[in-house]
Design goal:
With 112 residues, the chain is α+β, with helices and mostly antiparallel strands. It is 18% helix and 41% strand. The protein has a single domain, classed as Nuclear Transport Factor 2, Chain: A (Roll). The chain has two helices and six strands. It is globular. InterPro entries: NTF2-like_dom_sf (IPR032710).
């Protein structure tokens, strides 16, 4: 979250390096990639949203059974612009994220 909300793009890499392993496996909206640079590209793309610099906030508790964790988030842009919500699932190795999966979009209740 800190990388998305950094005061300047130049801080993104350092913030990600504090949270991710160098060989992090990243599953984002465009598929699988590896390394901090891949996550950085994604974060910078979101930060440079055409509607303006948005804000990313965690909007749920962190559910963490053992080395896996999940949480929900919401990204909003200024002046009532586009809003995106989703769920991240991460795997921790020695207190750093080594797998990062993004599920973008809200989950609708099932129509059972």
């Amino acid at each position: 979250m800190s990388a998305f909300n950094a005061s300047d793009d130049s801080y993104v890499t350092a913030l990600l390096s504090q949270a991710l392993t160098s060989d992090v496996v990243f599953w984002g909206p465009l598929g699988r990639s590896e390394g901090i640079a891949a996550v950085e590209r994604f974060v910078l793309d979101i930060r440079r949203h055409p509607a303006g610099t948005g804000t990313m906030v965690r909007c749920s508790a962190v559910d963490m059974p053992d080395e896996w964790a999940r949480y929900q988030w919401v990204f909003t842009t200024p002046n009532g612009g586009p809003r995106l919500a989703g769920t991240d699932v991460v795997h921790l190795r020695r207190s750093l994220i080594d797998q990062f999966i993004i599920f973008a979009g809200e989950i609708e209740p099932s129509a059972s």
